[in-house]
Amino acid sequence: MSSKNRLIYLPLGGAGEIGMNAYVYGYGPKGKERYILVDIGVTFPDMESSPGVDLIFADIAWLEERKDRLDAIFITHAHEDHVGAVGHLWDRLEAPVYARPFTAYHAARKMGEQGKPEEEVVVCEPWPAMVDAGPFRVGFMPLAHSIPESSGLVIDTPDGRIVHTGDFKLDETPLVGEAFDPVMWAEIAKPGVKALVCDSTNVFSQHPGKSESTVGPEITKLVSEAKGMVVATTFASNVARVKTLAEAGVAAGRSVCLLGRSMRRMVEAGHATGVLEGFPQTISPEDARELPRENLMLLVTGSQGERRAASAQLARGKYLGLSMKENDLFLFSSKTIPGNERGVIRIINSFSEMGVDVVDDRAGIYHVSGHANRPDLERAHEIMNPDLVIPMHGEHRHLREHAKVAMSNGRSSVLAVNGTMVDISAGGQIVDYVETGRTYLDGRVQIGAMDGVVRDRIRMALNGHVLVTLIIDENNEPLGEPWVEIKGLPETGNSNAPLQDVLEADLEQLIMRADRKTLRDDDKVEEALRRETRRSANEEVGHKPEVTVVVSRLA
Amino acid sequence: MSSKNRLIYLPLGGAGEIGMNAYVYGYGPKGKERYILVDIGVTFPDMESSPGVDLIFADIAWLEERKDRLDAIFITHAHEDHVGAVGHLWDRLEAPVYARPFTAYHAARKMGEQGKPEEEVVVCEPWPAMVDAGPFRVGFMPLAHSIPESSGLVIDTPDGRIVHTGDFKLDETPLVGEAFDPVMWAEIAKPGVKALVCDSTNVFSQHPGKSESTVGPEITKLVSEAKGMVVATTFASNVARVKTLAEAGVAAGRSVCLLGRSMRRMVEAGHATGVLEGFPQTISPEDARELPRENLMLLVTGSQGERRAASAQLARGKYLGLSMKENDLFLFSSKTIPGNERGVIRIINSFSEMGVDVVDDRAGIYHVSGHANRPDLERAHEIMNPDLVIPMHGEHRHLREHAKVAMSNGRSSVLAVNGTMVDISAGGQIVDYVETGRTYLDGRVQIGAMDGVVRDRIRMALNGHVLVTLIIDENNEPLGEPWVEIKGLPETGNSNAPLQDVLEADLEQLIMRADRKTLRDDDKVEEALRRETRRSANEEVGHKPEVTVVVSRLA
């Protein structure tokens, strides 16, 4: 090992949250490292912290400034939190994108949708094949997760081998995609692993994870016993589950219909890339409408209660002419991601109003997780036997717990959240903190999370918005009185007079009393009007609203 | 039973949601019934559906119109979703409020805070004492829940007896408050029960509920083994739990300090009304600051991650000079109510960053529910053996499941959501649907949920808000060009020019092209400006914003 070169790890996203994965590895002399990026995902906005936002990306400004030294982007698998930002951010990085066929299919489509060059996506063979990227040699290590061709990365560097797990579980019978292969793992571990950079999502789950193969028999039993139509939802990308659900339908003598864009897309991608052999034949929504409901099974999008997905549309009434009725069955073959409970509960109650029986995973038999639980993580540590365990993909609490698990077994570990630069060659020392954050895709524009745009929206939502206009003439005299428009505030307050009238009267008083010096100064007039509007509104309705003042001067 | 009189049940709140309980019972000739109201609670707003709102009440307009026939308001217990609206809504109903001492203490305080007459709150003795209210005789039946003196109501009418459970569990060792008393239940059931109106919250929980007494030993063990400071949170109103926590602290040789307004208030109320005997002595925050942290246990508000509560303040740094450190322990002796996950997870991660170990109820040993589980509900049905089971207090899915449970045991049941009038004398027939809804307390003003105020706020939060002003002179000519102010939209869009400039340029073009007919008509000018603003903004940033146009005419 050269004393000048160093091997660094720098998460820009995914270490401190579950979502928007983006991990940088670098090798070279300090400040002159060559880089690769692993994953470039999104996270999803919510009304509480990011209203109106479409998608959230890691802030890649640090890497963008150094893009001349970025040799490659590797995508571990096709989940949105790993590949979702590639089309939006690629032109800020301009490096080739490497992925296995199923993942590459999605990455290329996302590039195309954003007008980026699809040919930059390079389809790779799995381990033991490897890709050269600057000082790195990288191999895709097949492993089991909840989407086809999910892969860990074997990252060989002049300083030794890193294994970056991506998302994984230790499933020896995953039904679709590659099984956990302990022999391959041991072979990869053999030369010695400097660092295992490892998924932390399920570190709080104490029992060994269950195999995807346990789910099928339970679902088949449930569907066979159902009287009316059966509708089931899961993540569309969980192609193995979609197949299990479809097979259960067929086993129960039902025709299967896929509803929702991402459901159809994923199955198409599965067929196109050859990962989905033996998927039962499906029928169109038009044909489904003609069938007796007891002969029908719908597989729909919207396991998280998303408002526009097929499940929510069925909950509101019809979707493509299909609707649910009393004694139909709706199955959530999925878990509710924290934060999505309200949306899911909303559709469950709508189905309840229709007399539809809803089955969820409360019993723990109609869904299994795609992530390694705590004992599985320990087993992975054991097989790889790395010098250093670096927990990734998790909130702070997950990373911390994962590090504790590793250390309790006598291993070295380092807790590195987004922006923490770890020198792996120096045994996991933290050598720098880099500014990171979130980028919002807002409509078609990328804005910084801290730019104030979203803050203003939240303030308007919490406080309402009052617009005040005043015309001042050539002699610095007000022309008429101030006008007020209100939005998002009660029409009448304590005095039982319209709020608008009360505000206009108070502002007129203010302007009548204002001296010429104030009236000559736009800033002063605006500040006085804003302050009086907030005071008066607060007195009247108990809210201090956001206020925008427009002073127009006749030149 | 007179052929003219009828006995009706009409939920105005609580049947179709968990929260804002408000149940009307009526007896008399159709349209001339005398009424009582059981409970008058609140529910809590959220950013998604009710941003900026302070509290949510049931819409009591129906009852208000008939308040001359309202004889009494009964409050079953002091939880906010049962008593929280009494101070806000009392003057719209003006009937005496009956409650047992601990509940009455809270009701009176709430009346006082809103300037309502505290003397309208009448303190009642428990069953077999009864209160006369028009044609009703009502007794408070002590039962176990998660707050002292929780009571069901025995409601005797000329048509027979109704038992309204309020919130309850079958706990024979509840530690604080009255135990489940099967002998009293049997005695109440003896004359025959026309209808059991019954809590549905936990109908999906399949196992018999655990007693409050199971929690203490586990918590004591946990606290005894803790090395640093221990901080525990639970609902302040769960006085039994607060006592258990305090006793665990004392048993571990720690001094106990209560933090958070509602925590102190509840304990005060417990002392004042004599329900809280033997509560350990507590120390002030000032004294707590002087103690070694391993000798200290804090009991704090904020089990649901509420931003202003003590727990969240500790997560952000200091609270009353106290702060958490590495190796301290934070215990959630509570469950997270669906919808509050994000807030709770936020503080867990903040504690994780501080190196604080967080223990929650994942293991199911540091918290028990205050509601009857499915087998307990079945037992309650069995003891009361009513002619009719009416599920209340639950979302639609809970009510439906509860009705199914009752019917599967051969009982009659009716699913009645808010606004459904049930004729109990006619065996549970639905006889009317009454308009119901939600009233928002917004600042100090009550507004209807459908008034559009909150809708406007949500739209501004999702889309941003653009203000357009234009002055038109005496000759119907524009004086200068339109001015634009933006709030909650990106500053620059696709063209890389400021959005404000792009909008102003496009609007100027529009106004230059506008004919005199349009310029003479305020509505037409406004509509044209609004439309062009939305089009132009959408092209520039991919958002169609909310737009407010102000046209000022020089007279």
Automatic annotation (TrEMBL), chains A, B:
Keyword line: Exonuclease, Hydrolase, Metal-binding, Nuclease, RNA-binding, Zinc
GO molecular function, one term: RNA binding
Origin organism lineage: Bacteria, Pseudomonadati, Pseudomonadota, Alphaproteobacteria, Rhodobacterales
Protein name: Ribonuclease J
Domain Metallo-beta-lactamase residues, every copy: 19-219
PANTHER family recorded: RIBONUCLEASE J
Chain coiled-coil ranges: none
InterPro entries, sorted: Metallo-B-lactamas, RibonucZ/Hydroxyglut_hydro, RMMBL, RNase_J_2, RNase_J_b_CASP, RNase_J_C
